[in-house]
Amino acid sequence: RTHPQPTLAVHNHRTQREMTDSAKRQRCNNEAAMRLAKEEGVLQRGKHPANVMPGGMMWMDEDSDVQSGRQRSRSLGRWLGACSDETVLEVMMFLDGVDLAAVAVCSHWLYAFANHDDLWRRLAILQFGADHARPVRFVKNWRLTYVLHRQQETSGGGGVGGVGRKRKREESVATQSLASFQVRKVYSDALFLPWMNMSRDFAAAWLATDNIDRRSGLTEQEFIDEYESQNKPVVLTDVVTKWRAFGRWNHEFLSKTHGDALVNVQAIDMRLADFLEYSRTSTDETPLYLFDKHFAEKMPGASEEYETPKYFRDDLFKLLGDELRPNYRWLIAGPAKSGSTFHQDPNATSAWNGVLTGSKKWIMFPPDVVPPGVFPSDDGAEVMTPLSCMEWFANYYALAKTPGVTPVQPLETVVRAGEMMYVPSGWWHAVVNVEDSIAITQNFVSRNNLNRVLRFLQFRPEQVSGFCHPQGRSLYDVFREKLEQVMPDAVAAYDRMIADEEAAKQEKLKSAETYSITKSAALASSSSSSSSSSSSSSSSTSTGGGLFGGDTSFSFGF
What we know:
Elements: H1 16-39, H2 64-68, H3 70-76, H4 78-81, H5 85-92, H6 97-103, H7 108-114, H8 117-128, H9 142-155, H10 165-177, H11 189-199, H12 204-208, E1 214-215, H13 220-228, E2 234-236, H14 251-258, E3 262-265, E4 268-271, H15 272-281, E5 290-292, H16 295-298, H17 321-324, E6 329-334, E7 339-343, E8 350-357, E9 359-365, E10 375-376, E11 383-384, H18 389-400, E12 411-416, E13 420-423, E14 428-433, E15 437-444, H19 450-459, H20 475-486, H21 488-543
Parallel strand pairs: 1-2
Antiparallel strand pairs: 2-13, 3-4, 5-6, 6-15, 7-14, 8-13, 8-15, 9-12, 9-14, 10-11
Helix pairs in contact: 8-9, 9-10, 14-15, 20-21
């Protein structure tokens, strides 16, 4: 059902010499762009696979049709040519794989858009991501992945999980059906920047700062006094190294022991072995990130390979039991440059994140300091951030480090295999894998962050996540009921705190109202006094021996 890719002929009426000169200029433009990028230390690969160039480079092209946009309009047609590149990509999202393959043979610009891998990734996830019987298996790129799954679907095959000669034959067919092609004179930031973000190296400056405490040998009370009660992050260096999973949970071990487990990878399910292969070969700008909350059930024996550190065993959500407590533990894994953009952890909980393999860059801001480039809604229900972690670092990291931009400088570090990050309640944080990484994380409620959690559950019920009660009761009501049975003093203290805050709020409103009334009265009095003074002055001028004699009735009405 896919169209074979024909050889694209370049229809041009210029002489061969003119075409040769143009090709040389194009090559110089490419080399100049790559040289500039490499001087900045951001690229690890050569040029864009389809030879797309950044939008600003079109001004270096001597072709007047390119600079005026006429060449782009001819290539895209009347209607698409009038749209921005971003709008063209939006339009392309309405096409299926057959239509994209057909559009790709029409012109250089349409080929560049139709082969944008994010479009094929979206198609593969939408069409095949919900098929648990045949989970998605990534092959080299999303275009080939889609083609393989489509061929299997139309031929009635039994899935794309095969190996050996069958898999190589499938890849060969898919490769031939959509051969690569080098476009000419396509300048587009919408197409180039995603590839550039994917191809960036981590700048040395991004990894240099290390201003989060690293501690080992802490007693539980020392941890509470120095960090948890202060709501302060810390890296613990002597916890993960004691786990049985440390040193064992690498790609080879997990593929061999749990490779057939279906794990949740954002919006789709994949075999763990297939995801680890994707992680090894992905070139996505925003790589898929394994974030599975049921890994302990899917991977027999996994929960016995690690244990909750002593500092975090006082988890009050345990009172709800396994059936009612919100989602709280996850296996997380992903390739370099995958991760989480800025967010605050769900339900105002605290968390710990233990790294088993690889390393992670962390950057954190206190709860009341919104990071640059992050735009939460007024109620905090939605947060707008750059599409990928690498995009944030490229565009906002230097700004975040500039004195005066935020009230405080961010806390940041690289957490390596065998180390664990403690994330206090409410802290903004972004995490990006510096290399292929595997970690385990858990969220929890302790006595020290109980009030923050209760406040969130009570006053932001629409933002509670990971909880569903069979009778529709709120998490606040259920959790409070359990707490009243075992910790009535803590609940009473919370009620007093809320009552005191409400009283202080009312007192503040009353003071503001009193000030407003007093100020209004003062202004009214001042206005009345001014009016009386003006009237007296006017009367004096008109009756008392004025400028034109005592009997004149003329007055100066100033």
